[in-house]
């Protein structure tokens, strides 16, 4: 007979597994994300006082900001529902669309201009066998969510390299202490690492954007491996993993992937 | 060059919260309610209420949303005639006892069904303590039930679920039911 604590422990484990297959679908998430939190100034006792301020701000926005903002908006463009990752067209989550422009690189999107120093939160060096240099030009995409929030995702893949003796396909990629979390992408060992980048605009203002680095150790021919790097800026980690998984799946099957 | 469209900090925080909390709340709701459709409705209502009270909820949004969800699930249970609470059926126990190649899938379905078959207080306690991993004290505060009652309710619920959780130890439990 199991003890109470054993039953409790097993119950927790089995409940977790039992409901793991229950995941919110696209329609559910779209609805959930459509709600907007009420702002502090909109509480009833402040609402009356806030009306003139809001009206003033609205007028100011229309007069001064709208013309400036308008030139940056992407208008009258067909919705692009895929992004290019690792050379493959990968379908975006429901409602998202890719923005196209003459310069839709993540670096430009982040506001980084020529001469700007990007401060990576962790060293780019990741692999145990000396870092394989990325040999692909890499893909970069700016993505817009239904609520207007923008994010950016980019990818690259290294040349084939051999693992040194004693290093397995599932050995850690990122040095300890960098907050890496192991995961699996399309069956291959991977790690996600939170990161951030600080960019300074020409006017001197700086901003910090959070991102997720995803490294995947992909088997290549002759027992060698390639290192896939995907970086999602202002994008949930799960979405970065989903998109990368679709791209790698497409690589394996030779078809375009889907994130859902 | 693109300029990022400014976004309210609260919007970003709320969006992050929804992405993180949706699967957790949905899974808890599925265990606590009659079916998935009801569970989805309750979780959406939870998000609406959390959004309305974001100024308060943003300090601990998951804890706040858990409380809202529990209250909604209780209201829902009162509104609709509940199925009569019955002890685990012989069919459940036989299913749980069969350890064929599909046993893991069967076990999980049986476990979920068994949790749903518990009485409302027992089910809430099990979900809060063993899925959402709340302590006895936290569960007591959330359900507004004394800690001693939480413990005794847990004990009775575990006794009912023991046959499903440990199918290979069925004999003594079957004898007692």
Order of helices and strands of chain A: HHHEEEHEEEEEEHE
CATH fold-level label of the largest domain in chain B? Arc Repressor Mutant, subunit A
Uncertain stretches of 5 or more adjacent residues of chain A: 40-47, 61-77, 113-135, 255-260
Helix content of chain B: over 70%
What does the average pLDDT of chain A come to?
A: 69
Strand segment count of chain A: 10
β-strand amount of chain B: under 5%
Q: Helix/strand/pairing class of chain B, anyone?
A: mainly alpha
H-E string of chain B: HHHHHHHHHH
Structural class of chain A: alpha+beta
Strand content of chain A: 25-35%
3D architecture notes:
The complex is a heterodimer of chains A (260) and B (177). Chain A has 260 residues and is an alpha+beta fold. Chain A folds into two domains: 40-70, no CATH class; 82-258, no CATH class. Chain A contains five helices and ten strands, in the order αααβββαββββββαβ. Chain A has helices at residues 4-18, 26-33, 44-70, 106-109, 237-253; strands spanning 82-85, 88-91, 97-99, 139-144, 150-157, 181-185, 188-200, 206-219, 225-233, 257-258. In chain A, the strands form two sheets. A seven-stranded antiparallel β-sheet of chain A has the order 3-4-5-9-8-7-6. In chain A, strands 1-2-10 form a three-stranded mixed β-sheet, with helices on one face. In chain A, a hairpin with a 5-residue loop joins strand 8 (206-219) and strand 9. Chain A is globular and about 70 Å long. In chain A, 30% of the residues are buried. Chain B has 177 residues and is mainly alpha-helical. Chain B folds into two domains: 9-79, Rna Polymerase Sigma Factor, Chain: A (Orthogonal Bundle), CATH 1.10.1740; 90-176, Winged helix-like DNA-binding domain superfamily/Winged helix DNA-binding domain (Arc Repressor Mutant, subunit A, Orthogonal Bundle), CATH 1.10.10. Chain B is built from ten helices and no strands. Chain B has helices at residues 9-32, 36-52, 54-57, 61-79, 90-97, 103-117, 120-131, 136-143, 147-165, 170-176. Chain B is globular and about 50 Å long. The N and C termini of chain B lie far apart (71 Å). In chain B, 39% of the residues are buried. The model of chain B is unreliable at 1-7, 81-89, 91-102 and 168-177 (pLDDT under 50). Classes of the chains: A alpha+beta (260), B mainly alpha (177). The interface between A and B is large, with 48 and 54 residues.
């Amino acid at each position: 007979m199991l003890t109470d604590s054993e039953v409790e422990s097993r119950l927790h484990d089995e409940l977790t597994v039992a409901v793991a297959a229950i995941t919110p679908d696209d329609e559910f998430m779209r609805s959930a994300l459509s709600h907007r939190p009420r702002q502090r100034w909109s509480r009833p006792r402040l609402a009356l006082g806030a009306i003139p301020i809001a009206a003033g701000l609205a007028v100011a926005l229309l007069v001064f900001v709208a013309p400036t903002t308008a030139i940056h908006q992407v208008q009258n463009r067909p919705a692009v529902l895929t992004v290019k990752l690792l050379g493959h067209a990968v379908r975006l989550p429901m409602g998202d669309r890719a923005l196209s422009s003459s310069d839709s690189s993540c670096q430009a999107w982040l506001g980084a201009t020529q001469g700007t120093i990007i401060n990576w939160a962790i060293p780019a060096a990741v692999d145990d066998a000396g870092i394989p240099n990325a040999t692909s030009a890499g893909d970069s995409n700016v993505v817009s969510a239904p609520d207007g929030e923008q994010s950016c995702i980019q990818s690259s893949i290294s040349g084939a390299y051999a693992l040194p003796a004693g290093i397995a396909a599932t050995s850690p990629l990122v040095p300890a202490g960098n907050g890496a979390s192991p995961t699996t992408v399309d069956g291959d060992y991977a790690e996600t690492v939170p990161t951030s980048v600080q960019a300074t605009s020409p006017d001197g203002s700086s901003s910090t954007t959070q991102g997720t680095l995803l490294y995947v150790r992909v088997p290549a021919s002759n027992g060698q491996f390639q290192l896939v790097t995907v970086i999602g800026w202002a994008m949930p980690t799960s979405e970065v993993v989903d998109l990368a998984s679709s791209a790698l799946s497409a690589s394996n099957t030779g078809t375009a992937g889907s994130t859902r | 060059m693109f300029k990022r469209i400014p976004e309210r900090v609260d919007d970003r925080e709320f969006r992050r919260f929804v992405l993180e909390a949706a699967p957790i709340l949905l899974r808890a709701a599925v265990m606590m309610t009659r079916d998935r459709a009801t569970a989805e409705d309750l979780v959406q209502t939870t998000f609406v209420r959390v959004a309305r009270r974001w100024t308060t909820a943003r300090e601990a949004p998951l804890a706040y949303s858990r409380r809202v969800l529990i209250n909604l699930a209780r209201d829902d249970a009162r509104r609709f005639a509940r199925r009569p609470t019955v002890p685990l059926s012989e069919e459940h126990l036989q299913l749980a006892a069969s350890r064929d190649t599909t046993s893991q899938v069967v076990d999980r379905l049986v476990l979920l069904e068994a949790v749903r078959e518990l009485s409302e207080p027992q089910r809430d306690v099990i979900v809060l303590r063993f899925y959402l991993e709340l302590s006895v004290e936290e569960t007591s505060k959330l359900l507004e039930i004394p800690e001693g009652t939480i413990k005794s309710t847990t004990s009775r619920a575990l006794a009912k679920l023991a046959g499903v959780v440990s199918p290979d130890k069925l004999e003594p439990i079957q004898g007692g039911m």
